[in-house]
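Duplicate of #3305? Posting structure anyway:
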């Protein structure tokens, strides 16, 4: 039996709903990271737990790259290379200010379609990422 166009729409709505929940979980991790200063090796686990606990979905959280960086005057990218996190080199930004300590957070989820013959295929990966200044 072939799925009609309304079934295709339902599949997209379900996937979109789960994508929003993955985004919200990463945002929760970013809020936790920005309000709880770096505190050694258990900090990453606590941030991962904040991501996981923000949703009932089985997301795979990641506390990824850590970098010391300064604002870029020509784009939104962070200029890196201003020390080794979490101890950034004081007053080393081009404008003489202190660099920030930035962490990349992400989460992913494998979405499996509830409808046969989905336009998304049988499964697809939903993911979200945030870069947050933690110090």
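Output from current build:
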């Amino acid at each position: 039996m072939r799925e009609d166009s309304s079934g295709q729409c339902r599949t997209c709505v379900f996937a979109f709903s789960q994508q929003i929940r993955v985004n919200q979980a990463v945002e929760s991790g970013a809020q936790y990271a920005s309000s709880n200063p770096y505190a050694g090796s258990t900090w990453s686990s606590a941030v991962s737990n904040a991501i996981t606990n923000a949703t009932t979905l089985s997301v795979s959280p990641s506390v990824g790259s850590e970098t010391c960086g300064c604002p870029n005057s020509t784009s939104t990218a962070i200029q890196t290379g201003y020390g080794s996190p979490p101890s950034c080199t004081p007053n080393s930004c081009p404008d003489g200010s202190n660099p920030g300590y930035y962490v990349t957070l992400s989460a992913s989820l494998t979405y499996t379609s509830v409808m046969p013959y989905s336009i998304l295929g049988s499964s697809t990966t939903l993911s979200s990422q945030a870069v947050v200044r933690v110090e």
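Confirmed duplicate; merging threads. The chain has one domain: 5-133. Confidence is low (pLDDT under 50) at residues 1-6.
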